[in-house]
Each structure stands twice: as structure tokens, then as C-alpha cells.
Amino acid sequence: MATDLVPLPEIERLSPRCIRILGGNPSKFALQGTNTYLLGTGQQRLLIDTGEGKPSWIAAVKKTLEEERATIASAIVTHWHHDHQGGIGQLLEAWPGTKLYKSQKYEEEGQLDIADGQKFEVEGACLTAHHTPGHTTDHMVFILAEEDAMFTGDNVLGQGTAVFEDLATYLESLEKMKKLFKGRAYPGHGPVLDDGPGKIAEYIRHRQQREEQVIQTMRGGNTGSETGDEDSWTPMELVKVIYRDIPESLYPAAASGVLQILQKLQREGKVVVHDDRWRLSDRSAL
């Protein structure tokens, strides 16, 4: 989540082989909109993600390809969320011969699977796929060999922090991602990150700090408990303490993240839950 967004142009050449085209779907969670990327230097190009299929997006893709005198050979989807695959229909209508690749953990007719380690090549660009679940179970990132760069999908954003389905799995993927490259990160939303591994390390530290905040907050006692039990908490009660400086409109999303932390701590035996209220397993030990 991020509140003060850096303005991004609808179409921008980011390197000799990479053009970013915004999805035309800015929102609280999509930031400036979904980043879609055209890759390559020749007549055949690779496309990463399809946005939501907004008319402005497909028009921008057509305009860019006309200027580049190019077409799309293959489209590759990072994960199943609508703001990354919603434009598949419009894409295939405009370029019917496009090969479409997406991890088949959520199988769709006519789509080709992506295997861990699979390579996608066009003139000027070679991508290698890596399965990195966490944000979603089917999430893939891609290493661009020519730049030692990574397309991080929604595991790492250009601004703010990412949401995830499973915190422990997400942290494992971040550790894996950090070791795969040394250059830029091209995120699914927001501006380019010049030090990709550095940003991933920052994400890992941030999650560790949030986990420690949850433990320390629970140790301090819940004076605002709705039940009068100062040793137990709901995720929202924790949010109101830990995230008291953010807008209340973001509390539900923050509560989802806190719940993920609590579930990770539960698996580690550090907290227990009863009637949707969480407490430390052994306050003295923590």
C-alpha cells in the first residue's frame, strides 16, 4: 500500500529493450495502475501482463507496436489476479495468434503452462521464469538476462508494500528472489527500482519488524480490549495500535496482514487463538 504516488507516464521506454505501458486502472491498491511490459528489440516482442483490459491500455499497446513496427509473439502472465490477466480477451482479439502463458495452478483453456526455469526468448530479450508463491500460489517472476533484472510481479512493488496469501511462503520466495539477480526490479505496480535485491532485503526486514511489533504489542497488554481481557487481541485491535498513523480506510487491508503474521506465529507455537481472539502462548518466554 502507498499513499503519495510518483506520477508515471502512460507509455515509457525504460531501457533499450523494455517499454512500460500502464493498464489505465489506477486505484488504492493498483497504485498508478498495473504495469505491463513490452520486451525485445526486433519485430517479435514479449508482453508481461495484460492489465484489466481497459480500452486505453489496448490502444496504448497498439500505438506502441505501430511505432516500434513490431507485434506480440507471446504474452506471459505473472499471476491470476484480474488486474494482471483481465486484458487477455482484448489482447487475443487484437492479435489472435499470440501464445499465452500462465501458471496452470488456475487452469484456463487455451493457455499454456509456465514451468519453473522456463525460458522465453525474442530478439534482444531472454526471460527465465521462477515460481515464487506468496502473493498468490501461482505467482511467477522473470529474470531478464540482458540486464540482470527481475520482473517482480506483485511480490515486490515500486512503492509501498505488497499483500500476500501466506506470509511464511512469501518470505521464502523473497529470500529466493533476492539471490537471483543483481540489477533493477521492474514491479507489477509503481516505478522501477534501481536496486532490486536491496529493495527485497528491505521488504524482508520490514516483515520481520512487523512481526516483532505484533509480539511486543501483545506483550504490552490490550487496554482497549472489547472483552476486558487484556491478554487477548483481535487482528483489528492490533491494527489500531500498530497502524494508528495510517488512514482508517486502510485498516481492513492492514488487518489481513496482521492475521497472516498471527497465523505464522501460531505455526511456530508462539501464539494461540480461541474464539477469534489471539494471545501469546507464553508471555514470559517472549
TrEMBL record:
The chain's coiled-coil residues are none
CDD domains referenced in this protein's UniProt entry, alphabetically: LACTB2-like_MBL-fold
Q: Where is the Metallo-beta-lactamase domain?
A: 33-189
* Cofactors: Zn(2+)
For biological process, the GO terms are: secondary metabolite biosynthetic process
Q: Which UniProt keywords apply?
A: Hydrolase, Metal-binding, Zinc
This protein's source sits in the domain of life called Eukaryota
Task: Tell me yes or no: is Hydrolase among this UniProt entry's keywords.
Answer: yes
Q: Which GO MF terms does the UniProt record name? A: hydrolase activity; metal ion binding
Annotated InterPro entries: LACTB2-like_MBL-fold (IPR047921), LACTB2_WH (IPR041516), Metallo-B-lactamas (IPR001279), RibonucZ/Hydroxyglut_hydro (IPR036866), Sec-metab_biosynth-thioest (IPR050662), WH-like_DNA-bd_sf (IPR036388)
UniProt keyword Hydrolase present: yes
- Family of this protein: Belongs to the metallo-beta-lactamase superfamily. Glyoxalase II family.
Q: What is this protein called?
A: Metallo-beta-lactamase superfamily protein
Please tell me the species this chain comes from: Immersiella caudata
